[in-house]
Amino acid sequence: MSSQLEISGLRKLRIYALIALISILISLSLNFFLQITPLTIQQQPGAPPTAPLRELARLFGLIIPFLIVGAILQLASLIILRSGFKDLLQVRRDVGVGVTGTTLYIVSLPVLVIGALAILLFVIRSLPAFQNPPVPPTLVGPLVGGVILILIGALIALVGAIMVIIGLFKVGSIYGEGLIKVGAILTIIPYLNLVAPFLLIFGLGNAIRKVQGGYSGQSTGPLTPPQFPGQSPGRGPQVYQVGVGSLDDNGVTRLTLYSASPMTLVSAILYTQSGPRVARSLTLSLSPGYNNVEMTFDTSPLPKGTYNVDITFSNGLSLRVLVVH
């Protein structure tokens, strides 16, 4: 269940990156329209006094659909991103900073929108006065209020964006994916941020495949080995792991098991992102009490992190243990 929740969280982060890519394309389209669309707000000789206002209204008519779609996508992407971080947080991944960052980011959006609307109100009301200065002081209030709100919203958004970047960078560290780390950093660098969604999409895809292959990533919380279920009330498990095992570069795994009775090991399978690996040799028997168990797997290189090992016993019991490489 935890692995499915982890995969769900990573997929949500990937959806966020995809929406970010779409938002960038919308921004580029808006910039293109503004460049090819002439704008004249100066009063031309012989033109009616309302001509600049109509020209400004025409411009708003062009850009408002882009802004609305962009705002909706931005809000949706942040909600999905926050949900993804929360899923990873539930499986003990240290990405709480990402949850906080997305929350701040979401809070900043209405503040920025209200500030922008206040400035827009000032422009609409003051445009006729621009033809016959000065602008009445009563119209300056929305402008000042709008600027203050935009500054506050921008500050909140900046803090949120930095925390989101830190959260994404931590995801890259947990799953050993440099593409995610680089993509997280590039999101705030002008022009280079065009590449960031692609890096995040590919990097998160690699992380998903790793988890599906059994890779547990770099642990960021206390590891509690799974215990064997189905015991009778009042009785402890027949066998369980003590602490966390180790896996060295030679493929040798060492761990401690506690057994309530003599038991015989039949097989052990190490789950990696490249597929399961069956132990070539292992300690065959357990005595009552604590036992040091050693097993050897294929020596193919593995990324650093925690891995699951399923041990099967001759009496039909199975136990999943954790080892750190």
Automatic annotation (TrEMBL):
This is DUF973 domain-containing protein. InterPro entries: DUF973. The keyword Protein biosynthesis does not apply. The chain crosses the membrane at residues 15-36, 56-81, 102-124, 144-166, 178-202. It comes from the Archaea. The keyword Transmembrane helix applies. It comes from Metallosphaera hakonensis JCM 8857 = DSM 7519. Keywords: Membrane, Transmembrane, Transmembrane helix.
